[in-house]
Design a protein that fits this description.
The chain starts with a strand and ends in a 5-residue tail after the last helix. It has one domain: Rossmann fold, CATH 3.40.50. The relative contact order is 0.16. About 35% of the residues lie in helices and about 25% in strands. The chain is of the alpha/beta class. Helix 3 packs across helix 4. Strands 6-7-8-3-9-10 form a six-stranded mixed sheet. The chain has a four-stranded antiparallel sheet with strand order 2-1-4-5, with no helix packed on it. It is globular. A hairpin with a 2-residue loop joins strand 9 and strand 10. The protein binds adenosine-5'-diphosphate. The site of adenosine-5'-diphosphate (ADP) has 11 residues, from strand 2 and helix 1.
């Protein structure tokens, strides 16, 4: 399922005195199976663009294609249901959306709401709890008795239970310790490969963008100003400076070596 944004502009509070454009003529194509990172300074439009991937926001101008479905201004919520099923969004701090009495019910909620049988939904929950690295007994617990990191994993299992073809990750490791961050990111990467998903990662972490993504798009002041492979994007640290982005460790390291090599040897 390819994703294509064509000339997408978005204004908050359109037609009111508070109208504010957050996206301007964004063109972005994400072929099926791509791991796409979207990076950019705070306020550059990342969250706004992210909400266009499953119709939570509809473009004020332009078109969003999700496979053979089209999202344009005025599309009814009912028509967006099939898109919501195929595109799973893991929002920042997804654990805030847990609400059921047990972890099992929480993970089963999404699929059952979309007409999946109880039996199939339970089977998915039992498989997924292990996949996200938690013991099966967790299913019987209240989500509110878990640690923050465990709750995050349960919330992720809830998104995966919908068996999406596209996963959109909004800073999925925010607030986790470095080990938890790496585990979660590696888990998403394995899923991406094994299930041939399209993964879209919105992140502040240049390290994660460099490590996992096939393609990186830079957002700046509501525009998609640059896109390319990590090698192309990180080739010149001046590009990153221009968009107020911190280069990843590997680039800083290379720059340091080059700097040292260019220094005349002292006698
Ligand atoms: P990012 O995720 O990169 O930090 P956002 O997409 O949240 O950027 O924001 C892009 C621009 O839109 C910013 O100028 C922000 O202030 C503005 N914005 C975000 N949400 C709203 C909103 N609900 N109403 C009005 N303006 C908003």
């Amino acid at each position: 399922m390819d994703i294509k944004l064509q000339q997408v502009s978005y204004a908050y509070s359109m037609g009111t005195p508070f109208e504010k454009y957050a996206l301007f003529d964004v063109d972005l194509t994400i072929p099926h199976g791509t791991y796409q990172a979207i990076i950019g300074h705070t306020g550059s439009g990342k969250s706004t663009i992210l909400q266009h991937f499953n119709g939570l926001l509809k473009p004020s101008k332009g078109q969003v294609h999700i496979g053979d479905r089209l999202i344009v201004a005025g599309k009814k919520a009912k028509e967006l249901k099939p898109i919501r099923q195929k595109v799973g969004i893991v929002f920042q701090f997804p654990e805030h959306q847990l609400f059921e009495e047990t972890v099992l019910k929480d993970i089963m909620f999404g699929p059952m709401n979309f007409g999946v049988s109880e039996e199939v939904a339970e089977k998915r929950a039992r498989d997924l709890i292990k996949l996200v690295g938690l013991p099966e007994e967790t299913l019987e617990k209240s989500p509110f008795d878990l640690s923050g990191g465990q709750m995050r994993r349960v919330a992720i299992a809830g998104v995966l239970a919908m068996e999406p073809e596209v996963i959109v990750l909004d800073e999925p490791t925010a607030g986790l310790d470095p080990r938890g961050q790496r585990e979660i990111m590696d888990m998403f990467y394995s899923l991406h490969k094994e299930r041939h998903l399209t993964t879209i990662l919105v992140t502040h972490s240049m390290e994660d963008a460099a490590r996992y993504a096939d393609s990186i798009a830079i957002m700046h002041e509501g525009k998609c100003v640059l896109s390319g492979t990590p090698r192309e994007i990180f080739a010149d640290s001046k590009t990153l400076e221009q968009y107020r982005l911190e280069p990843p460790h590997i680039v800083r390291f290379q720059a340091k070596i080059e700097q040292l090599m260019n220094q005349p040897l002292s006698r």
